[in-house]
Design goal:
Layout (H helix, E strand, L loop, with lengths): L10 H9 L6 E6 L6 H14 L4 E5 L6 H6 L9 E5 L2 E5 L2 H7 L3 E4 L15 H10 L3 E7 L7 H8 L9 H6 L2 E5 L3 H9 L6 H8 L5 H29 L11 E6 L4 H16 L2 E8 L8 H16 L3 E6 L4 H11 L4 E5 L6 H6 L3 H8 L4 E5 L3 H4 L13 H21 L9 H15 L1 H19 L11 H24 L1
Parallel strand pairs: 1-6, 1-7, 2-5, 5-6, 8-9, 8-11, 9-10, 11-12
Antiparallel strand pairs: 3-4
Helix pairs in contact: 1-10, 11-12, 13-15, 17-18, 17-19, 18-19, 18-20, 19-20
Amino acid sequence: MTSAADTRPSPDALLTQAAREGRGRLKIFIGAAPGVGKTWAMLDDAQRRHAEGADVLAALIETHGRAETQAKLSGLPQLARKPVIYKGRALTEMDLDGLLRRRPALALIDELAHTNADGGRHEKRWQDVEEVLAAGIDVFTTLNIQHIETLNETVARITGVRVRETVPDRVLEMADEIELIDIPPDELLERLRQGKVYPQDQAARALTSFFAKGNLTALRELALRAAADRVDAQLREHMAANAIAGPWPTQERILVCVNESPAAREAIRVAKRSADRARAEWIALNVTQARAENLPDADKDRLAGTLRLAERLGAELATLEAERDVAQAILSYAADRNVKRIVIGRPRPRPFWSRLTTEDVAAGLLRQSGRFEITLAAEPDERTTRAGWHLPHVAHEPLAWGEAALAVILASAFAYAAEQLFPVASLSVIYMTAVVVVASRRGLGLAMATAVLGFFAYNYLFTEPRHSFRVSRQGELLTLGLFLVASLITGNLAARLR
C-alpha cells in the first residue's frame, strides 16, 4: 500500500532544483585520457547550437596545435585571451571579466582542471566556471577522468603517473549533463602514433608509460563508471523531485542489512560476492533503535565488528533510525537509493513470546517486498548449531578425558592439603577452579564433565559420612547442590570466553 509520503516529492530534491534556478547549465564532456576527442565533440555540439541561432562564444579552446581542432572553430565567435606575465614568461589566460561583460548564452571553456597563472581572480579554471554559471551563462567544458579528486590516487596506482591538477567531486555533481567521449584503446594508440595527440617525441614516451594499453583499458572503465554514477544520481534526483516510486531497473545496486546477529557477517560476504559479480555498488545499512542501547556488550561488539568488515570490503556505510516497522523503513530507503536487491541475515528460531513482542524484520521484508529482490543469508554451518536446545559436544580423545580426570585428582589433593586451614564448605572453590581450567582448554563439554566428576569427588571425600556417596545432613545436601550448579555455570562462562 502506498503511503501519502510516497506520493509527495522529496523536499531535498526540490531544494536542489530551486538552487539551480537562475544559474547557467553545465555540460561536461568527459574522457578516459587526452586525445579521445573531447574538445572536438564539444565544438561539434556548439556548432549545431550556433547553426540553430544560439549565442555561442568560444571563451577558451586549447587546440594544442591540432589542425582539425582549429578548423572546427571556424565560424564560432571567439573571446580574445588575456595576456599574463608569469615568472618572466608571457602567457595567456581566459578573460573572465570580458566573458561576463559579453554575456553569451553559451560559453565554451576547455580543460576544466587547468590551474590559472598567478594574479587572476581564481586559482583554478573550475572556479572561473562556477562564477560564469552563477551569472546565468551556460557552459560547455571538458575533463579527463584522472583529474577527478577522489579518483586521482586510483589513477596514480594504475598508471604510475600522479596528476597534479584536480577538481573536487562536487564540480562533477554540479553538471546538468555529462557526455562520455569514448574510443577503443587501439584507436587512441593509433592516433598517438600519428602525432594527433602529442608531438612525435612526446608521443613515443607516452606510449611506454601513461598510454600503455592496459592503463587505457583501466582508465576507460573508470570513465564509464564515473559517468554512470553521475547519470544515476541525476535519475534518483529526478525520481525524488517527481515522487516516482522506485526502484527503476537501471544501475545495479545492492543493499545489505546489518545488525548484531552472527548471520549479518555472512550477509556482508554474500553482498560483497554479488556486488563483485555484478560490478555494482553496495551499501551496508544499520537500522538503529532505542533498544540498541540495552544490547549486551557482546552484541554491540559483534555489530561494530560487522560494520568494520563491511567498510573493509568496500561497502558504503549508512545508518537509519526507525523505532517501528523497520522493514518498511528499509524498503523506503532502498527505493530512495534505487536499490533493487536487499540482502539480510536469516533470522534464528525465536521463542513464541519473542514473536509477540519484537518485529520479525526478515518476514516483514518478504511480505512487503513487492518489486524488490530479497536474499536471506544463512549463518555458517559451525554457527547454526548454536540455535535451539542441544547437548554440548564432549570430546572423544582419551587425552581430553585424562585432563579432566587429572584436574579433579589435583583439585582433591589440594583440597586435602587445605582442609586443615579452611572450612570444608570452602574446599568446593578448588574444584570450581579445576572446572574453569578445563573449560578454557577443552570447551563446554569437558567442563561439564569435570563439574560432575568434581561433584562426586567432593561428596565422596569431604561430606559426612566420608568415603560414601550418602549425605547425612540436609545442610550439606544444599551445599552440594549449589556447588554443582555453580560449577556448571562457571564452566559454561569460561567455555564461552574461550
